[in-house]
């Protein structure tokens, strides 16, 4: 089977080739040049581990995974601590992203042939190759924080005939010696736009990045830079791994007794409203993360703040009872989440594309529809 042709047809049907250069770049860049022989796909097998693909064992299954139009190929787990030797459990730390979201994202970049581009987190090099096809390799700079990934990506690009300027370093710092850039594009998610990116973008240039909060990592943000201020809206949804320097912390340092009280609302109304609702709530409580535990009558949801000093556990069953909510620490996280939910509902559940971000010398602010309408509790 011609898996590449199947992938191209699916992308055409989905409408992601919004500009002619995108289809040309797809045809020119062979995705197989950038996927290692051994990798994982983000689906679990019967044992609960992530399915492993090995080109040497089953080339057809490997090619089918490489050209899956809607699914990424995981090339690294746990920052390289988990070797690619078989099915595994772990945290994804690098991938060759799914073709549909790659071309969806590139379609928002407004990339002209004369533009200079900074590619943050070049990883395998596949994304960088697409950029080279559009603007030429001399105008592309890539930065990758992981030494092993940086070497592998550089090797892939060289073997495929591309020679962009590549740097192994912290992408959050940009590459000042190559600035200014007309475009900065990130292949990983962040929760705070670095001031270095704003400073290194040319007047009128764009920053395009996946963006999320500890609560919900699901936005694709496009900012235009003018007079040292970056401002723009979310142009859609995107779920990417975190940039390593902005991974939400995992700490728990709770002291003291809990306070018990009823919940004012069924937790399922707050937690079961879908991605757009969760994203809007997260913009108001960006450092709060949540996880579920238990099944049936024992099902609960736990919230933790970024410092790990405030925790709330909410029971789904009999949520109106006096002990349904237990709160530790200085913040009542369930109260904050419920008030954020109420705010979102009262504004008739605005779509993610109505939210925006401003980044200037005073920091980062979220807004709804217009910059003078802040999103805040």
Shape: globular
Q: The CATH topology of the largest domain, please?
A: Rossmann fold
Calculate Rg over CA atoms. 22 Å
- Using the 3D structure, state the CATH architecture of the largest domain: 3-Layer(aba) Sandwich
Low-confidence stretches: none
What is the H-and-E element order?
A: HHEEHEEHEHEHEEHEEEEHHEEEEHEE
What order do the strands of the largest sheet run in, or round the barrel if closed? 7-6-5-8-9-10-11-17-18
Give the termini distance in whole angstroms: 54 Å
Count of spatially separate domains: 2
CATH superfamily of the largest domain: Vaccinia Virus protein VP39
**Binned strand content:** 25-35%
Write the topology of this structure.
Elements: H1 3-14, H2 20-28, E1 38-44, E2 50-54, H3 59-66, E3 73-77, E4 92-96, H4 99-106, E5 117-120, H5 126-135, E6 140-144, H6 147-159, E7 165-168, E8 181-186, H7 195-200, E9 201-212, E10 217-226, E11 229-237, E12 259-261, H8 267-271, H9 275-284, E13 289-293, E14 300-304, E15 311-315, E16 325-328, H10 333-346, E17 355-360, E18 363-368
Parallel strand pairs: 5-6, 5-8, 6-7, 8-9
Antiparallel strand pairs: 1-2, 3-4, 9-10, 10-11, 11-17, 12-16, 13-14, 14-15, 15-16, 17-18
Helix pairs in contact: 2-5, 9-10
